[in-house]
Amino acid sequence: MDGGEAAAIENVREVAGEGVFSRHGHEDVSLARPRSLINLFGLASEYRRGDHATLLSFADALRPDAIDVVGDLRPDGLAILIASGDRPEALEDVARATGTTAIGHLRPADKLALIERQK
Q: Assuming Cys at both sites, which of 27, 69, 86, 114 could form a disulfide with 90, CB separation 3.0 to 4.6 Å?
């Protein structure tokens, strides 16, 4: 690896809808759902090491063919919606661009339940 070595972490566990948690030496470390509402209108994860937390903001670009794909599905009478763990505000632009409904703040189990209700 250029520029350094990967940190030795142990006891790695993933919590669905929350993040990945571990230990590095004597400290807890994680990459997880933000604990605060600092980043209200974007996508973000929070890197935590011990008592220190850093908000990592990022953007998800809409696939170039997304609008065409949604348009192709409409004549089939399918219920088209976006089911996401992100904040609803972060989904508004994608929903508007694709002409779909977006539901946010969903955990993986919530998404599965939504799919079952749509059947």
A: 86
Instruction: Report the alpha-carbon distance of residue 10 to residue 38 in Å, rounded.
Output: 29
Distance CA 37, CA 44 (A): 10
Contact (CB, 8 A) for 85 and 104: yes
Q: 5 in a domain, yes or no? A: no
Residue 5 DSSP code:
-
Give the integer Cα–Cα distance in Å for 74 and 51: 49
Q: Over the stretch 60-116, which tens digit does the pLDDT of each residue have?
A: 788 899 999 999 988 988 878 899 887 787 788 889 999 999 998 888 889 999 989
Residues 48 and 70 reside in one and the same domain: no
pTM: 0.59
Task: Show the domain range for 76.
Answer: 66-118
> What's the CA angle centered on 91, arms 78 and 20, to 5 degrees?
105
